[in-house]
Design brief:
Layout lengths: L3 E5 L4 E5 L3 H34 L1 H12 L9 E7 L6 H9 L8 E8 L5 H8 L3 E5 L8 H12 L7 E6 L2 E2 L4 H11 L2 E8 L6 H24 L9 E5 H6 L10 H11 L4 E11 L5 H21 L3 H4 L3 H9 L5 H17 L3 H5 L2 H22 L6 H27 L3 H4 L12 E10 L4 E10 L4 E7 L2 E4 L6 H14 L3 E2 L8 E2 L2 H6 L4 E4 L1 H5 L6 E4 L13 H7 L4
Parallel strand pairs: 3-4, 3-6, 4-5, 8-10
Antiparallel strand pairs: 1-2, 6-9, 7-10, 8-9, 11-12, 11-15, 12-13, 13-14, 16-17, 17-18
Helix pairs in contact: 1-7, 1-13, 1-15, 2-7, 3-4, 7-15, 7-16, 10-16, 13-15
Length: 566
Amino acid sequence: MVKIIYINSKKSLIKIPWGQCQVMNLVDIICNFVSISIFVSLVYYVFNELYILNNAHKGKFYDIHKANAPGRPEQNINVIVYAHNNENTIVQLIDSLKKQDYSSDRYIINVILDNCCDDSAKYLEIVGGTRIWRINTSTQPVGKFKAVVWLLERIMSSENSNSFVVVDADTITEKDFLNKINSVLFDTPVVIGDVQPLNCSPNIFSKFEYLNYFSGTRLINLGRTHLKLGNIIDAPVFAIRQEVLEKIKFNRKEQDFEEYFYSLKLLDNGINVIFSSRVAVYKFFNENILDVAKTIYNRRLKRFVTFRNNLPVLFFNSNLRLKELTLSMIDPGTITKLLALSFLVFVSNNYNILFSNIISDKILYILLGLVLIKSLSALLTAGILKVGLKSIFLLGFYTPFIYLFSVLVGFKQEKAGELETKGKSNLALKNNDPERCFIETTVTNGKNEIPCKLEIVQYNNNTQVIFMFKDKKLTSGKQPRVDYAMEEVMEKLKKHGFVLKTCLNCGYFRFNEAIASRHNGAKGYCLYENIDSGSRIKHLSSIWNSCENIIPSQARSAIFQKLSID
């Protein structure tokens, strides 16, 4: 005998055989679970974002108040410029940094060239005044924050710095940039800065990119700053005190993104990352639809991977602000919220399940209205009316296509097997592939100076130096330290009557075992400014560096005697 059960639907009374009842109940349970989960998530993210945006204006007043703060004593600042094929902009940035209204002996400029295949290095050598760090790996490029961590591992323990500032090479700064950094860092240990457009008439996709930034990221950062919720240090400029780096080490993460992981680590240790519009850099926006789609996808991927890797925080950590920041990693965008609400309205109108009886259409439409009001308010605050009615229409028309392209970009990368490797360390410095660094320098025979190149090859446990001039090479053996390999090459050159014009051969260069053991024989102190201007600051320099002040190493003992150095 077949049992018949009856269920009420919004349309009519439906007869369903008893054998199908269990399947139908299972479908209802899944549908209820999915619908209620989506609804609860949307309510949380919509109201949380509204609360943060409401406090964004208070964050602006906080910035204005700090702008009127009195001047602060100058600290020693270490500026790190990250570059990947930025030959068109890097010279302007370096020029703007060298023209700061800040004592020149109070800051130094380091430039990271991340697998650059353009003429950035050549232009930097012409401009001068920077320390160049080249990264050459099999994975290109390694990425901004992995490169920054790589550099900090090498220089932080020996630098006489109070703070570090990281700047993108496609930006420029104003003359008071470092003064503002110095002032803000007296009040807070970590700060992320603002980015402003340089071009007056950008194309439609550039308008989309920076309106998306001003109506979303910037306002959210301001609100989070005022509420002391912490921010992500993924910004064109950020600054941090050295004492924080020493307390909470900036590690390279194999399965995470450093900029996100470190932000969570800071908040877990009670250190807020604040946003300050006073600390601003300027950028020329020139985007196309594919660039914008890639930016959106990569940001979404970084956040998802960070959330996945830090999921235990939600269950095993009592820090509510840390939980909130972790949950913010998977905050859906406006279009995703609208699609999710459309799905819930469809379920509510077509299925007679528990969700449909608890949540009415009216509640869903109110939630939909809040999403639209929030987005419109943010766009008005960001100044969308200034772009013109035609641009507003085009932005509205292109927005769905841009997000569709971002999904397609993600699908393409996932299909190519890149999804799992994106969160892993791309900096291949610990594998079997050697790290190679090419340096342009000079060799002399006492009469003529001849341009040449050095190749520093660093393996896991040893180093090799190769001297190159046209088609001729002199190669050292694999030595346990860099200085041993350099000395071997210099001895070979000496037999041919040539001297390499590098710091290791300079009379102003101080190199002892204490310094050598700390840096694997790669660094020492340049004493030129100690002699020339009586400075007491210790200037660290790599043994292969060269400059116009190099003098024969025979003068070293006299310089040491004058400075009372043993």
